[in-house]
Amino acid sequence: MAYVLLIDDDLEFVLEQVRQSFPAPEHKVIPVATGAAGIEQVRTAPPDVILLDLRLPDQSGLAVYEQIRAIDARIPVIFITSATTADTAIEAMKQGAFNYLHKPLDLQQLDDVVGEALEVAERMQSPVVLRGESWDDGSDSAFVGTSRTMLEAFKAIGRVAAQDVPVLISGESGTGKELAARAVYQHSARARAPFLALNCAAIPESLLESELFGHEKGAFTGADRRRVGKFEQCSGGTIMLDEIGDMPLALQAKILRLLQEQTFERVGGNETVRTDVRIIAATHRDLRALAAEGKFRSDLYYRLAVCTVHLPPLRERGEDLAVLTRHFLARASREFGKDVRAVAPEALDRLRAYSWPGNVRELQSVVKQALLRASGNVLLPNFLPELGVAAPRSVPPSGGLDIDAFISRELTATATDLYLTTHRELDKVLLPRVLEFTKGNHRQAARILGIARQTMRSKLRGLGIHVTHLVSSDEDDSVE
Ligand SMILES: Nc1ncnc2c1ncn2[C@@H]1O[C@H](COP(=O)(O)OP(=O)(O)OP(=O)(O)O)[C@@H](O)[C@H]1O
Question: Per the UniProt record, which residue ranges are transmembrane (predicted)?
């Protein structure tokens, strides 16, 4: 359940819109009409996200924002502005506001921006617990591993977290780099300041610079107002640059300067902006090799590689496979209201024989699929999907889905959940296709599909499909 605090004296119209977008009982919207009441609410019952009008009867929205930040800088604050207060909204972004929306509110933007803020807040606030020993409570943010290599990684996380220097996290896709970055952040001196994660490979090259550094009005066609970038917005906090190996060389130079001097210029601007951000870079590529080939700046590589955390691939983690399988089984059992507690040794043997190119993410998906088919409380080998075929996809499949072939393959006398697994298979193709069609527009996609946006989001998450908000509130979401 999301808890949204609305601080706005226009309680009739705006409140109605917010309630429409975030209906009870799944959501709780608490409205207050003054800054003082809002601050009191944040103090006594901290919300997940705050919508704050810039114009309030008792004090300015910016003053209220400063006080909220002092209480907890991690709660995302989205400003509500009228056209005349847009400049102040930009000022608020410079001070770390999450985003801003114009009145009258556009319901889709409201939904997208608040939805994204909730995801960001969850990343910051749900604690990543490093689990070297106990593993079977299925807790959502547990970072599980008992193998020697994972214990080394946990130690490295502990070692680098406290030092206020850049960190480089390496590991194949699905090995837990984002979890590691969150753990570093949460154990650092900046843990009470914001954390933003950005996937450099998912953002078109032409937009990435502006996303990170912002731009001035008129910097390029369509830049009709100044935009504050992530490095300015997140000053005091931590930024995860995921897939940094995919960053264009020109932009790497700008990152290097930021690391050396903590300064930069917005795109199309001359003003030197000062910031104070800790960078956690992550990559599935071999940056040292890329640097040797001239495809990654070696000076940036050496700067980033002072503190490193390496996450080994699942196939090299020995005993972790069983531990993680039980962990995900406990989690999925809870999620689907089943009670499958044990894994048959033959099922584990089959899992061990596989090479796991998609690593822990793939295992998580396989266990979920197996659980959906399971009956009784032991996970038997015939509940497992065909390994390699059922690997999660993060990009839309190009060849489409042969649903008839899928059903023929799965239709056995022992199948118990063919309805669910077939629908999941269909979702893997359908959802990305519809989002592609709507250019990442969630509201439109949900409307076309005829399902609730929240349902669509949770389905995407369940399938391991990540949706990232790319640019600003004015623009769209897109599929990674
Ligand atoms: N050791 C672990 N314990 C529990 N869950 C894990 C572990 N490692 C990964 N996961 C889960 O696997 C999924 C993928 O992890 P994560 O997104 O951190 O990987 P990644 O290396 O950043 O992947 P990518 O490079 O594709 O972005 C997430 O759902 C995460 O919670």
Answer: none
- Kindly state the tokens that stand for 372: 């959906």
Contact 347, 384 (CB under 8 A): yes
> ipTM of the assembly?
0.97
Say how many Å lie between the CA of residue 359 and the centre of ligand 1. Answer: 8
Q: Residue 408, Cα to own-chain centre: how many angstroms?
A: 36
Residue nearest to atom 28 of ligand 1 (CA): 361
- DSSP class of residue 234 equals T
Q: Judge whether 352 and 321 are in contact, CB under 8 Å.
A: yes
- 101: β partners: 80
What gap in Å lies between CA 315 and CA 146, rounded to an integer?
14
- Of ligand 1's listed atoms, the one at least distance from the Cα of 150 is 1
Max distance between CA atoms of the chain, in angstroms, equals: 70
Asked whether 31 and 6 are in contact (CB, 8 A), the reply is: yes
* 46-80 per-position pLDDT tens digit: 999 999 998 899 999 999 999 999 999 999 999 99
CA atoms within 13 A on the CB side of 350: 18
Lowest-confidence pick of 17-26, 232-241, 468-477:
468-477
Ligand 1 midpoint to CA 210 (Å): 28
| Residue owning the nearest CA to atom 18 of ligand 1 | 176
Say which amino acid occupies 441.
N
**What is the reported pTM?**
0.75
What domains are defined for the chain?
2-125 (3.40.50.2300), 148-310 (3.40.50.300), 315-392 (1.10.8.60), 397-480 (1.10.10.60)
Give the separation between CA 206 and CA 252, rounded to whole angstroms. 14
Pocket of ligand 1 from Cβ distances under 6 Å: 142-145, 171, 173-179, 242, 284, 360-361, 364
pLDDT tens per residue across span 134-183: 555 656 778 888 888 998 999 999 999 989 999 999 999 999 999 999 99
Q: Probe ligand 1: pick from 129, 243, 364, max atoms within 8 Å of CB?
A: 364
- Best residue among 178, 200, 242 to mutate for probing ligand 1's pocket (most ligand atoms within 8 Å of CB) is 178
Please tell me the distance from the alpha carbon of residue 374 to that of residue 390, in angstroms, as a whole number: 16
